[in-house]
Amino acid sequence: AMWGPSIVGFGRYHYRYETGHEGDAFITGFAPRRANQVVYVMPGYLDLDEPLARLGKHRLGKSCLYINKLADVDLDALRELVEASVASMRARYPS
Q1: Which residues of 7-36 are buried (b: 16+ CB within 10 A; e: fewer)?
Q2: Is a pLDDT exceeding 90 seen at residue 27?
Q3: Which of 56, 58, 69, 81 is most buried, with most CB under 10 Å away?
Q4: CA-CA distance, 44 to 36, in Å (whole number)?
Q5: For residues 81 and 74, is the Cβ–Cβ distance under 8 A?
Q6: 32/19 Cα distance (integer angstroms)
Q7: What pTM did the predictor assign?
Q8: Where exactly are the structural domains of the chain?
Q9: What is the CATH number of domain 2-92?
Q10: Apex CA 8: angle with CA 41 and CA 80, to 5°?
């Protein structure tokens, strides 16, 4: 599903903060940007050192993985990262 004009998101979870703020967000997703491709790794990168080491050229944000070109990365490592992210989010936010 599209989340805004440029993010393609997969899955959905509901969150609620202690402040009372709540909403829905996608479990994982990607967005093509002018400078790079963004893959959303929602739980962050804890325990993902091994696939990150094999990934290739990338930069990390809090929940964003920035890739200049898919040709720059190991697609198997990218798949492992996304699969681990999805599994973590589904365990944390069961339907």
Answers
A1: eebebebeeeeeeeeeeebbbbbbbeeeeb
A2: yes
A3: 81
A4: 19
A5: no
A6: 33
A7: 0.88
A8: 2-92
A9: 3.90.1150
A10: 35
